[in-house]
Amino acid sequence: MAIQLNDRDQLIFQLIEEHQVLLEKHISWFISGDDKPVLIRDRLRKLFYLDYLLCHRHASKLPWWTTPTKPLVYMLSPMARTVAAMPQTDVDLMDSEFQRHHLEVANLRMLYLVAKNAGQIRDFAWQTIKADQIEDLKLDAIVTYCIQDTVKVGLVNNPSNDAQTLSRIEKSCISHGLDSILIASRDESAQKKMQAAIHAKGGLLDQKAFFATHQELYKEGIVITQWQNSDPASLGQKVTQSVSPVAYIQQNLQIPPIAV
Fold first, then answer.
1. pLDDT tens, position by position, 117-167
2. What gap in Å lies between CA 159 and CA 170, rounded to an integer?
3. Neighbour order of strands in the sheet with 53-57
4. Best CA proximity match to 54, nearest among 15, 21, 7, 83
């Protein structure tokens, strides 16, 4: 049974193309704009049954996913790409690690939208770094928003800590005029290794990099989470002072936590 694709369907296709893979919860937040998230489960199921979307349960454990059932992951089918005039892809979308990385990035975007709808931030703008630029920039997204002043931050999801990666992140911080680099790690062990590597490198990146785990961000909210810096004396503690506008705002505004 054919259906008439509407503007919302086209937006769903565009969002999935931008993020490669998405959960229903992410799509609901992304298409809702300034309104409350909409219920789109039935529409996603119909698009799946009609072969516009691919869908399966994610294979690995997501530390911020709190329900017992593994989440349903949505991807574009070749037919949807043809209908939406999008290029076909050679990426293995079924690869568990590929999915996990991109779902984590999408989750950060959703958490910012949660904060926006709760009135914690305003003038929020998100830019997903295109696949062909990620290797050079080593950023996953660039975000701007306002609390007291407008800040521009680079988001990096679970990066490696080799010298080339750190150098490219620092270069991107300069070339894009970023106030801070926010690094989201999958667990505390990975976070501590990255903190140590950046502190050993020193320089601008050491001054502007801040750290939190995905579980912390999902539980506490991305704006009110107290990000750590890379100073060994502060490891395992919350940031007490920093030149970062983002860290200053997070420490000095009393913003109540919100449920995701």
1. 999 999 999 999 998 999 999 999 999 999 888 999 999 999 999 999 999
2. 13
3. 22-23, 72-76, 53-57
4. 21
Residue bearing tokens 């750190």: 166
Residue carrying structure tokens 């009110």: 224
Q: In the numeric block, which tokens belong to residue 230?
A: 């890379």
Where are the strands (E) in the chain, listed by range? 22-23, 53-57, 72-76, 122-128, 141-146, 150-157, 180-185, 209-213
pTM: 0.88
Token pair belonging to 190: 């990975």
Q: Could you tell me which residues come within 8 angstroms of residue 149 by beta carbon, excluding any fewer than 6 positions away?
A: 245
Cα Rg, the chain, nearest whole Å: 19
Buried b (16+ CB within 10 A) or exposed e, 141-156: bbbbbebeeebbbbbb
